[in-house]
Design goal:
The complex is a heterodimer of chains A (about 90) and B (about 190).
Chain A: H1 3-9, E1 13-17, E2 21-24, E3 29-30, H2 34-39, H3 45-53, H4 57-67, H5 69-82
Antiparallel strand pairs in A: 1-2, 2-3
Helix pairs in contact in A: 4-5
Chain B: E1 3-5, E2 17-21, E3 24-26, E4 37-45, E5 49-51, E6 59-68, E7 76-87, E8 95-101, E9 104-106, E10 133-141, E11 149-157, E12 164-166, E13 183-190
Antiparallel strand pairs in B: 1-2, 2-3, 4-13, 5-12, 6-11, 7-10, 7-12, 7-13, 8-9, 8-11
The chains are: A alpha+beta (about 90), B mainly beta (about 190).
């Protein structure tokens, strides 16, 4: 189950278990429309994709030291272009 | 029923007896020496769980409890703790897990101000959202009962704005780098 989608669509949900279902803070079960959940698009998806694609800090510093700021900016911009904000 | 005596048995008191039934032989549990493993029970959870509750509010991790009925009130219960925890925060945030017998927290640190009392807290680490941390430990409990006894985990997050996960990380993209894992709770009754 997409727990983040469930929380986004049903903000009263505080507990999600793949088997038991979704529940509010009082322990009441919340019925979930899985079609809505499956159709939900994570607005933060590009952030996660960028974070995984950026070089490590050490590699970025190394690029700045050896090739300069412009080379570093080009490297970072390539990642941003690859995973644009939607 | 035939009864035979183990000559020179080194474990238990002298005159240890093996009873022989129609389906084979067995040694009565009460005749086993101190330290013997009398029974083992395990629960494994392989699906995922998440909670987003106010700071300090612990909730049961659904599907991660185990019940055991000790054969003697003097028996010890050896609990093997094994919980895989993820977190929604990009950098860090607390995710405290505690072990509970019935409704009583056990194997926790002493009370000290506002500090959480738990098995472990989520470590401060960059990109925590992509990580899964396995909380583990071993605790020898003395429940002093012959009634069915339930052991379970409870989890609490940083605040209602954070989500703590079991058996997955916070990112959980549909990719190989974001694994799904399993957690377990195992109890052994030890003769004492």
């Amino acid at each position: 189950m997409n727990h983040k989608a469930i929380r986004a669509i049903y903000p009263q949900v505080v507990i999600v278990d793949d088997t038991a279902g979704a529940f509010d803070k009082d322990g009441n079960k919340v019925e979930i429309d899985m079609a809505l959940v499956d159709a939900w698009q994570d607005p933060d998806a590009y952030k996660y994709a960028r974070a995984k694609a950026y070089p490590s800090y050490a590699d970025q510093f190394d690029t700045i030291f050896h090739e300069g700021i412009d080379a570093w900016k080009a490297q970072i911009q390539a990642v941003k272009d690859r995973f644009p904000k939607e | 029923m035939p009864v035979s005596t183990i000559n020179g048995a080194s474990a238990g008191s002298s005159g240890t007896i093996i009873t022989t039934g129609s389906s084979g032989q067995s040694i009565p549990k009460a005749a086993l020496p101190t330290g013997s493993v009398l029974q083992v029970v395990q629960t494994v959870k392989s699906d995922t769980f998440s909670a987003s509750l106010a700071q300090g509010v612990f909730t049961d991790i659904t599907g991660l409890s185990v019940s055991i009925t000790p054969t003697s009130a003097t028996s010890k219960i050896l609990v093997f703790i094994d919980v895989a925890v993820g977190h929604s925060a990009t950098t860090t945030g607390a995710a405290n897990v505690r072990l509970v017998r019935g409704s009583t927290s056990i194997y926790i640190g002493d009370a000290s101000g506002s500090r959480a009392r738990s098995i472990m807290s989520f470590p401060y680490i960059a990109d925590a959202i992509y990580s899964i941390f396995r909380y583990s430990g071993v605790y020898l409990d003395s429940p002093a009962t012959t009634s069915s006894t339930t052991y379970k985990y409870q989890i609490a997050g940083q605040s209602s704005g954070y989500t703590v996960y079991v058996n997955r990380n916070g990112s959980d993209d549909n990719r190989w780098e974001d694994p799904r894992v399993a957690s377990s709770i195992t109890v052994m009754e030890i003769a004492a």
